[in-house]
Amino acid sequence: MRPQVVLLVVSLLVSPVCGQSLLQAQPVEGPVLPIVGSPTAAAAHDLDADGDDDLVVMEDTGPVILRKQPAGFVRETFASGLTSGVVPAVLAGDFDADGQADLLLGWYWGVNAALRVWWGDGSGTFPVPNFTIITFSSNVGPMPIAAADVDNDGDTDFVFTSQPGYGTPGSLLVRNLGNRAFAVASAAQFPAAPPSFSVPFCVDVDGDGWRDVVLVSENARTRLYWNNAGNFIEATTAQFPVI
Ligand SMILES: [Ca+2]
Ligand SMILES: [Ca+2]
Ligand SMILES: [Ca+2]
Ligand SMILES: [Ca+2]
Q1: With the CA atoms of 230, 236, 237 and 241 taken in that order, what torsion angle do they form, in degrees rounded to the nearest 10?
Q2: Ligand showing the shortest atom-to-Cα distance for residue 176
Q3: Span from the CA of 44 to the centroid of ligand 1 (angstroms)
Q4: pTM score, whole prediction
Q5: Which residue did the predictor score with more confidence, 122 or 7?
Q6: Which of 82-86, 94-98, 162-166, 236-240 has the lowest mean pLDDT?
Q7: How many Å lie between the centroid of ligand 1 and the Cα of residue 221?
Q8: What is d(CA 21, CA 23) in angstroms, rounded to the nearest whole number?
Q9: Nearest ligand, CA of residue 95?
Q10: Residues of the chain with pLDDT > 90: what percent?
Q11: How remote is the CA of residue 92 from the centroid of ligand 1, in Å?
Q12: 86 burial class (0-12, 13-18, 19+ CB within 10 angstroms)?
């Protein structure tokens, strides 16, 4: 049986028809997105609750929403208050658990450096400014953001890194307190990250039911922070010897 199987596989591989399908298959071309300029970030979520994922895209002059409709993506702008494309932090999700999609936008520069959570009304277009500003004790330059329920209270929390040159370097944990309120964890609760470009991931490394945080850094070793019932402590290099 084995020689026959081998011959059949070889036959399939050299078959002109099969070879064409394997080697010359062309990708299916998707719709052209109505995006202007050079976007810096994007997130996907069903913003208008019609069963398909829409997009929020950070363009050069601020965020736009691309709602997926049967004929293609419909471009929607909203009064985000952001006029710069230097807004690389964006997430979409239901952050107050009311069943309607919300947006988390972050940006930098001076006193405007903050996170802002836009509360959705279910339309996916955010027609009326309705947001909560999360402020910090020092300037931050939010870039990559990870969303996860790190304190196991049922709502989404945020971990992000503040990049050198755009704010005080380090990583920060923003706890979702419910009722559209947030609190920035203290340095004792969430130790600062290395001063480098880092991307956070929330994952339960040790399987204890609490999501730990892994920070992958550009110019420093990857670090792991154990989640100890909602408070974090950095793993030793013996525990996590990742360069
Ligand atoms: Ca949708
Ligand atoms: Ca919501
Ligand atoms: Ca939580
Ligand atoms: Ca864990």
Answers
A1: -40
A2: 3
A3: 9
A4: 0.81
A5: 122
A6: 82-86
A7: 39
A8: 6
A9: 2
A10: 48
A11: 12
A12: middle
